[in-house]
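Next up, sample data:
>
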Amino acid sequence: MDGLRVLIAGGGTGGHIIPGLAVADAFRDRHHILVDWVGTERGLEGRMVRDAGYPLHMIEVGQLKGVNLKTRLKTLTAIPRSLLACRRLLKELQPQVVIGVGGYASGPGMLAAILAHVPTLAIEPNAAPGLTNRLLCRWVSAAAVNFPPAAASFRNASVTGIPVRQAFFDLPPRPPGAPPHLLVFGGSQGARVLNTHLPRIAAALLEGVPGLTILHQAGARAGETTLAAYCAEAAGLERRWEVRPFLDDMPQRFGAADLILARSGASTVAELAAAGKPSILIPFPQATDDHQTRNARVLADAEATVLLPEARLTDALLLAELTALLRSPERLQAMAVRARALAHPDAVERIVEMAMQLAARPRA
């Protein structure tokens, strides 16, 4: 569309920014459409969006949920200023559609667009919509959701999935007869529950699953302590495990794994589906509105994962589940097929098409 301009609102974490950047890249690289971004100084967009080459417009807004009263009051007093800043930005840029990706700046950006009668598209990665989308769901023009349960919250929603790197879809199958391999992945910061339980059961797991190797991503802060725990608990055994603070090539790591043990953030769940990988998921219980449990439940209901609530987790339970799965290649293969059936390889194209259709509507 000639002359089309898109404004993306939101950020904070990579879970919000990465899908937004994938959509922005499609607009810019495939359709030659101008893309601007509105975010905050406190989010990762200050680095990630600028590094990707998009104009970034900053507003001041903070958190409302999961914070103390002082922070909540500060955010409430900042909302009118951030809303006015977004109204001025809309007048300056004249975008034909505003896309909300969640996070701090998404609320003011989307609300300003709604009040100005600019078409809006909400991207909701979780099975349970976040606070911003819950507040605005009745007024946004349309929504692109990752999971079917989230669609019911919006008046005009499509289950598009969220963007996942193509490399996850292109993984070759594991070689027949390859020794079993477990990937333990706690996200970029690691996960304390995984860093605590896995070293304690490592010796029994390695003895119970012949030939098993383990790659454990522990996070920067817990890398050394997790490594020390493995060394202490699995002393005397052949060292068929490795602990890393970070893992750089996640598609390759997924591809090498027969089973993945992880949290259940929206991006992780989408990557598991794209890669067609069986998993055991332990949702982060403090996630807002317990959305990680709802994300994992979608895969569990499809029998593509084993969901283990952290509150009920014991060494014995985790050892039993891991051992049973790793010693059952047929069950792992069946779970892999079910996971892949939940993937959305055309998510970016569908989201871009939705946005372009909204932009083509006559303005009220």
Summary: Residues 69-93 form the longest helix (25 residues).
